[in-house]
């Protein structure tokens, strides 16, 4: 109850604390400390229970239970916030499970989602004429997941429920490109399926933009066909250059790989156009 | 670079920089060892026999798919010309052999225009699916499920063509040709089908001219290929039976083309 009171009073500071928790690069050493409630705590009620509360509080902190309302936790010794927080008792759990709550890595870092890297990779795809393959050295699937989700959402806005289709087609296309690329490259081919899916997903960005544009153009018109053609060529160009520069394939197979990528992105553009 | 490719097929090579990702361990060893290693591993699980027996069996049936992907731009362009206009091909139709390790083996497709490859059939199949999707869309009948059905219909057509060629070989008493060779030859028909469907998209009446034309070209290509390359391996020589079978192959292209080039939503016709 006191927690809720503190939250309502200090919304911005608690939001700041939450953001610090989720995004590690915002942190510096000064803001790492959790927000501690102000000194005007009603210290009257927990006084008789302090001695019983402290071992419970210590074990609770070391066991790191739920993640709700982190601003209620405090490193300062104020008993009011922690005893009013009705967490389940960890009886007999004097040894802490793992590290303490403050030493846990942030959530996005644990999940492997680096939003800054995703943003920089996205921006690098937008320029079709200058491709920066160093950014795509380490592959990740969270950017492609975001792109495919937004592609599905734009299709949903157009009235087509294509989420399952997109998932299935991306899987089949990645397998197809994986087989073709590694077979063409011979013994030097070191494209693995994870990187293949990551590259196909990132180069899906022009398709996402196409599906957004297609909401405003008449269906079946010439305009959408021309724009789709341009965007497919954009996708193909970026995908081919990334593939050739990242996985050590021969440069002599560039046209052959480009045609395979072209087929894949034409297939996805069909979902948008028709 | 191409000389070393034929030296030791089938050895999986670990990638130089293994990435710490959950899929990395499963897909290590890209290249020619992938299929053999993968199939060998699964075969051992399924059959429960020793790995060498299964691998030797698989290599007998599958014959190193790496060979069929040694292509380059020049080969692809010339092979497309041979497949689509077979009567313009002035040279011979037999494959060039070279002695490798005491046995005669065929040269890879880069050096030999008559060697089969798997790149063109795969790409032609993909182009056929995409063009069929465009054709469906232009008639207002596009849906992704229809495209999935067309994909499977194309696969069935490919399988029918493979079984046609295989049955012809069996009826002559020899099934010794490697399976991937026959899969490659059967897949070349998709190039003709792509031309026919493209004609149907651009101008409706051109389809009635292009379809029999490409059908005829594909028939001629298959006949010449089967005659020169595959029937060499047949032991008994029975001239009239050969010619009837070749004629049957050429005539059987017509219903196949009619079935596959008629892009509709339902399965049969």
Automatic annotation (TrEMBL), chain A:
Residues 31-75 are annotated as: Disordered. PANTHER family: GOLGI MEMBRANE PROTEIN YIP1 (PTHR21236), PROTEIN YIPF (PTHR21236:SF2). It comes from Actinidia rufa. It holds the Pfam family Yip1. Keywords: Membrane, Transmembrane, Transmembrane helix. This is Protein YIP. It comes from the Eukaryota. It is a multi-pass membrane protein.
TrEMBL record, chain B:
The keyword Membrane applies. This is Integral membrane HRF1 family protein. The chain crosses the membrane at residues 118-140, 146-165, 177-199, 205-223, 244-268. Pfam families: YIF1. It is a multi-pass membrane protein. Residues 1-23 are annotated as: Disordered. GO terms for cellular component: COPII-coated ER to Golgi transport vesicle; endoplasmic reticulum membrane; endoplasmic reticulum-Golgi intermediate compartment; Golgi membrane. The keyword Secreted does not apply. It is found in: Endoplasmic reticulum membrane; Golgi apparatus membrane. Belongs to the YIF1 family. Residues 1-10 have a biased composition (Low complexity). GO terms for biological process: endoplasmic reticulum to Golgi vesicle-mediated transport; protein transport. Residues 11-21 have a biased composition (Pro residues). Keywords: Endoplasmic reticulum, Golgi apparatus, Membrane, Protein transport, Transmembrane, Transmembrane helix, Transport.
